[in-house]
Amino acid sequence: TGFITLDPGYVNTGSCLSAITFMDGEKGILRYRGIPVEQLAEHSTFKETAYLLINGRLPNRTELTQFSINLNDNSLVHTDLKVFFQNFPRASHPMGILSAMVNALRSFYPSLGTSEEEINITMTRLLAKVRTMAAMSYKISRGHELVLPRPDLTYCENFLNMMFDTPVKPYEIKKEVVRALRVFWILHADHEQNCSTSSVRMVGSARVNLYAAISAGIAALWGPLHGGANQAVIEMLTDVHTSGGNCRKAVERAKDKNDPFRLPGFGHRVYKTYDPRAKIIKKICDELLESMQISDPLLDIARELEEIALKDPYFIDHNLYPNVDFYSGIVLRAIGIPTNMFTVMFALGRLPGWIAQWKESTDDPHWKISRPRQIYTGNQQCDYIPLHAR
Ligand code: CMC
């Protein structure tokens, strides 16, 4: 069987060759297809960034127009899916619903095809429909009528409109809100071989359909150590706020090795410096709240917590800095997204990355099924004992 290297959590194991996303955790660098994320956040749209990740280069005008048309054409969802949503127990977590729904898409749209064109349609369908489904689940949770996608709106505007437009109060699309959502999604669009992406690749390696692979990614993202951290941050900030605003106490708790609590929104497997995404989202957060004239006490608590943590020797020694989730929840709150949908927002942003990584693995002529080994620590051979003798 040969020599097996043990690497729990795959800290030092490269699982694939990839040309999609570059990260330098020491210097705090993140680039999609070579382009710094800062430039994309400043100049690109989410749609264009999705195209870049999936196709390897920025689209020209004709390609972008065609991509927009394809997204628009695929943005409706089968009305039978509505029944599916309505039958989930009311208290279901939106991430559980989303994962199940994406898996169910395989049954609603069974023809996946094998040609490049057919695979492109499946990828576009996912990008277009998951956004509609997320807004739909929100409307159903509120008991409101669904709002359909509109061809005259951008990808981000459409989502906001489907979420918040009502017959009694038409949704006013504000450019600073669209900008915040656009940047939030661009920053989340890919992050090389993180837990959910590795799940997409691993499940995909068994040659399941794209929907099933993405559904596995959504399930992994749900976890509080991964995408679920944006929800955990707001819950933690709310706790600190309602219990008197003692930030130092939260920092002390996070350092206590007898307490499983860790400061959500801090630390990262790869970044040993400030997460470049956190820098951008922090700025967006300040600008959004200022332009909307919102004064959120949770932002003050977040700022104070950050200041205390960054000066604390434990956080310094452990290279613990804010990650993307630390300020993103405050942005989502200002936009009006309910807390239990924060991780769904992360999933919508990560979709292009998952799709691009799945596509890259399927294009690999040496694509192998993922099958790690282990170091066995159980019993050596022992005999079966009949029930009466145990
Ligand atoms: N608060 C307190 N201590 C921490 C934290 C934290 N947030 N993060 C790591 N540590 C400590 C940890 O206890 C360990 O200490 P020691 O070496 O003394 O035992 C050391 O730092 C290294 O931690 P680790 O668990 O070995 O690091 P990891 O790479 O396995 O975990 C992490 C990375 C992100 C899961 C972890 O930092 C964490 O749990 N952070 C809080 C959850 C969070 O914000 N997750 C979002 C990550 S960014 C969004 C995404 O891409 O998913």
TrEMBL record:
SUPFAM superfamilies referenced in this protein's UniProt entry, alphabetically: Citrate synthase
PROSITE patterns with a match to the protein in the record: CITRATE_SYNTHASE
Catalytic activity entry: oxaloacetate + acetyl-CoA + H2O = citrate + CoA + H(+)
Gene Ontology MF: a single term: citrate synthase activity
GO CC, any one term: cytoplasm
CDD domains linked: EcCS_like (cd06114)
Keywords: Transferase, Tricarboxylic acid cycle
TM helices/strands, residue ranges: none
Active site: H268, D325
GO terms, biological process: tricarboxylic acid cycle
Pathway given in the UniProt record: Carbohydrate metabolism; tricarboxylic acid cycle; isocitrate from oxaloacetate: step 1/2
Entry-linked Pfam families: Citrate_synt
Family to which the UniProt record says this protein belongs: Belongs to the citrate synthase family.
Name this polypeptide is given: Citrate synthase
